[in-house]
Amino acid sequence: MTVLDHEPVPVDPGRSVRELHVLRGGGVSLVLVTAEQGLPEVLHWGRDVGDLDGRDTEDLLLALGRPVTPSGFDVPWPLTVLPTERDGWEGRPGIAGHVDGEPLVPRWRDVEVASGSGTALVTATSDTLTLATTFTLDAAGVLRVRHAVTNAGRAAVHLQALEATLPVGERAAEVLDLAGRWTRERTPQRRALTHGSHARESRRGRTGHDAATLLVLGTPGFADDAGELWAVHLAWSADSVHRYDVLAEARPVLGAGELLRPGEIVLAEGETFQSPDVVFVWSGSGLDGLSDRLHDSLRARPGHPVRPRPVVLNTWEAVYFRQELAPLTALADAAADVGVERFVLDDGWFLGRRSDGTALGDWRVDPTVWPDGLGPLVDHVRGLGMEFGLWFEPEMVSPVSELAAAHPEWMLQRPDDDVRTWRNQYVLDMAEPLARAHVLEAMSAVIGELHVDFVKWDQNRDVVHAVHAGRAGIDAHTRGVYTLMDDLRRRHPWLEIEACASGGARVDLGVLERTDRVWASDSNDAMERLPIQRWTELLLPLELIGSHVGPEVAHTTRRHLDLDFRMAVSLFGSAGIETDITRLPPEDLGRLRAWTALYRRERGLLHTGRLRHLDLGDPGLLATAVVGRDRSRALVRVARTVTGPRSLAVPLRLRGLDRSRRYRVAPVEGLTVPRGLDPVPPPWYGRGSLELPGAVLEDVGVRLLALAPGTALVLEVQALD
C-alpha cells in the first residue's frame, strides 16, 4: 500500500532552508532534497527507509554530503535530477542542445518542489527554459519520471537530449540488458559494470527486435531470486537511449530517454517538449522481484484488460494470403469445436492484397476475393460463438497502391530520395493530420460496419530516413501513431488492439498504454519461444504476451515439435492457435480441445499470479511457476531444451509457496505426461500425485522425469487446507 508523503521537513534552519521530500510506495522510497541553489538531488532510491522527521534529516544530509575530492572542483557539487556540466557533472548530460549555437546548460532559478500522494513536482526557470519534472511512485514501487521543457525566451531552442537519471547503489557490479533479431527477440546479455559513460542507442524508428527493453544494474551474482537490482525502461515506441554512468567522483547513475535526431526538436517561443515516461524499478529480491513490481503496476492500471483473455485462432500460418470463404468457414468450424473464442483474419483481406508487394493503405474489402464482403464470414464466426478480429498495418503504404498514387506527399520516406523499401513498403507520415485522418476513417468504416472486436495492429519495417516538415520526423510520427490509436479506441470503445511489429519489435510500456497485448515474436517455434517469452516476462505479465500453438513444422526454423510441447509453451501466455487445424487428425483435435479447456480453467491463476523462474541446476531445463496470490495454488512448467549433464534427473524445488501448508502435486489434467527417458520413472509418477509440506517442496523438492529435449511437464500444486 502507498504511504502518503509527509510535509516537507526543513533541514538546518540556522544556515539555510533545505527540504526533504519523501515518496514511499510498495516497499520503495525516493528521497529528494532541495538545494540552496539549482535543482534538487536524489539522496536515495531503493528500499523503503520509513518516515523521516526533523531528528533525521540534518544528520542524513551530513551523512551523505559530498566532500571535495582530490583533483576535482574546489567546492562540493550536487548530482541533480537533471545533471549538466554547470552542476559539476561530467558524464552524459540530462539535457543538451543549443540556442543560437551557444550550448544549452541552463542556470536554474526559482526552483520549487511540491510533493504529496505519491508524486513530487519540481519546477524551475532559466533564461531560456522553464522545467517541470514529475516523479510518480505507485503502490507497486514503480517510479515514473517525466520532464517537460518550455522555451521561455525568444530565440529557438534546439533540443538534443532530455533524459531522466537516478543514482543507484554503489554495490552495483553487473549489467544486464536484452538484444535480439527477428524471431529471436529479447536475448539476454550480461557483463561487468565498467567505468565510463555507456549509452545503448536504438535508431530503428520503432522499439526494435533488438531493444534493450530493460537496462538492469545489480549486485554481484544477482539471479532470478537474489540480489539488489536497479532497472530502467523507456515507455516509448521509437528511437531510444538507455544509459549508465560510472565516474570516479560520483555515484553510479542509471537513466533513459528518447534519442533525438539533429534538428528534430526545435522549440519556438512558448513551445513545450515533453519526454516519454522513464520507468525506474528497484528490487531487493532479484529479477523476479523486478517483475513482481512491474506486473503489479501494470495490473493496477485503469486500462488493464479485465475480461478473461480469450483463446485466439489467427489465420496467418493456416492460410497466409490464400483467403477464400469456404476454407475459412471450415477453419472457423474447427476452431469453435476445439474451444477457440476469438477468430482473427490476418493479412490478405483488402483491395488487391495477394502478396506482400501491394495494396497497403487501401483498407477496403477486396470484392474479387470477397464478392459479398466479409459479412458472411463474420456472421459465421459469430454464429459459432466467437469474436471476430482483423489485421491492419495502418502506418504503412505499398508503392503499388491507390493511396501511394493519390498522395505521395503523405509518405514519411520519399521514394524519389532513394529510400529503400522493406518488405516492399514505405511508411506513412502519421504526423500529417490529413494522412492520419484518412487512415482513421478507412479503418473505422470497416471496424464499424463489421463491429470488429479486435485489431492485430502490425508494423513490418524499421523507420529510417524519416522526414516531417523538413526535419527528422521519428518523434512526430510516433506521437501521431499514438494519437491514431487513441482516436480509434475513442470511436470504438469496445475494440481491443494487439501491438505487433513483424513479431516482437514493439514491446514497450508506451504502446501498452493504448493496446491490450503484444505479439512477442513471429516465431511460433515453441523451443525458440521459451527464452523469448521468459525474457518478455521480465517486463510484462503473461496476460499481455500473445503466444500461439504453431504448426508441427515451424515456419521460421523448420523444426518439428510435438503438439503437447507446443501447447505447454503457449499455455503460459495469452494463448492461441496459429496453424491449419482442419488438417489435424481427430486425436490431435481432441488434445487441442483438452488444452483449451485447461487454459480456460487456469487463466484466472496464470493471469493474476506471481511468476517464479526456478534454477534447477540443469542448464537444459527451463522451469516457470505461477503462484497464486494467496499461495493456495500454483502451475509449474518444466521444459527440456537440450540434454542435461546427468542421467539422474534433478529434483524440482518450488519457490513462492507457503512453507507451513501442505500441498498436493500432480500432473495437470489437459496435457499428456511425457514418457521420459528413464526405463523406470521415479516411483511417485506411478501413483500420480504427492502430498508434502511447502517447506519440503522448496528445500528438498520432487524428483523429475528425465525429460527428452522438446518435451515439457506441467504440474498442478494445490494446497490441502
Question: If you had to describe this structure to a student in words, what would you say it looks like?
Answer:
The protein has about 725 residues and is an alpha+beta fold. Strand 5 and strand 6 (about 100-105) form a beta hairpin. Helix 4 (about 325-340) packs parallel to helix 5 (about 375-385) and helix 7 (about 435-450) runs parallel beside helix 8 (about 475-490). The longest helix has 21 residues, at about 585-605. It is globular, with a radius of gyration of 27 Å. The model is unreliable at about 1-15 (pLDDT under 50).
**What integer value in Å does the Rg equal?**
27 Å
Reported for the largest beta sheet, the result is: 10 strands, antiparallel
Distance between the termini: 28 Å
- What ranges have pLDDT less than 50 throughout 5 or more consecutive residues? 1-16
SS content category: alpha+beta
**Fraction in beta strands:** 25-35%
Rounded mean pLDDT is 95
Overall geometry: globular
Secondary structure tally: strands: 41
Oligomer: single chain
Total of helices: 13
Q: Helicity range of the residues?
A: 10-25%
